[in-house]
Specification:
Helix content: 40-55%
Largest sheet: 5 strands, mixed
Strand order of the largest sheet: 3-2-1-4-5
Radius of gyration: 20 Å
Shape: elongated
Structural class: alpha/beta
Order of helices and strands: HHHEEEHEEHHH
Strand content: 5-15%
Distance between the termini: 14 Å
């Protein structure tokens, strides 16, 4: 049985609630749709955002900030004490690259060793970029792989000195992500990356811009489904 297709007007209403972070239960009550329907759309929106972010092939240029962060429960169920924070913890490491005045890119990594971080940087950053990093040894040797310009930030000193030697941008992004994900009261492992890419997409964008971008992604999907004779959305 084919699912009844919602009008563009109704889709825009759902998108607006999604962008404004109205949860699925409240959205279903306000728009008079079943919670299952709203959940399906919210999940599809996140998948579209994820696909869009993963398909972005442009290299980041200019002043680039790199940093890693760790995500996971402070105390997993059954654990006798809280997990260690930061490097060396059992939490999931995430590597982030921020193009100043531009976009941010994140990637789940198995560890924060030199080979791992260098591989991600080489895949996402132009060799002309000026990399700003902290003192973690995983960033050592960037000159050897082609990055002649990189500046080390010393967090133990007053490091900006009017010279732009800081990684405030990527650190601000990590704060945004952790504040946002905390609101969900726990996220399943298999959906964590969807939420992470959604944070990339949302960061520092106006509500109107987010709505327009998401509706455009959705319309592209609908045209593709039509050409393949699918009627789910």
């Amino acid at each position: 049985m084919k699912r009844r297709r919602l009008s563009d007007y109704k889709i825009k209403k759902i998108i607006r609630h999604f962008v404004l972070d109205v949860n699925a239960t409240q959205t279903s009550e306000l728009l008079i749709h079943s919670r299952a329907t709203i959940n399906n759309y919210f999940r599809r929106f996140r998948e579209l955002i994820y696909q869009s972010r993963m398909n972005e092939k442009n290299l980041l240029v200019g002043a680039i900030e790199v940093d890693e962060s760790y995500f996971g429960a402070a105390r997993p169920r059954g654990a006798p004490k809280k997990l260690k924070r930061g490097r060396g913890s059992l939490k999931q490491p995430v590597f982030g690259i921020f193009e100043r005045n531009g976009q941010v890119y994140t990637e789940l990594v198995p560890d924060c060793k030199k080979a791992t971080l260098h591989a991600v940087i080489l895949g996402k950053v132009s060799l002309d970029g000026v990399i700003h990093r902290d003192g973690w040894r995983g960033y050592n040797g960037l000159v050897d792989v082609g990055f002649d310009k990189h500046l080390r930030v010393n967090h133990n000193e007053t490091y900006s000195l009017g010279k732009g030697q800081h990684i405030n941008g990527i650190e601000s992004f990590w704060s945004f992500v952790k504040r946002r994900l905390r609101r969900f009261n726990g996220i399943a492992k298999h959906t964590f990356e969807l939420h992470l890419k959604e944070c990339e997409w949302r960061w520092k964008k106006e509500t109107g811009t987010l709505e327009q971008e998401l509706f455009k992604l959705f319309k592209t999907l609908r045209v593709l489904n039509r050409s393949n004779s699918y009627d789910d959305y």
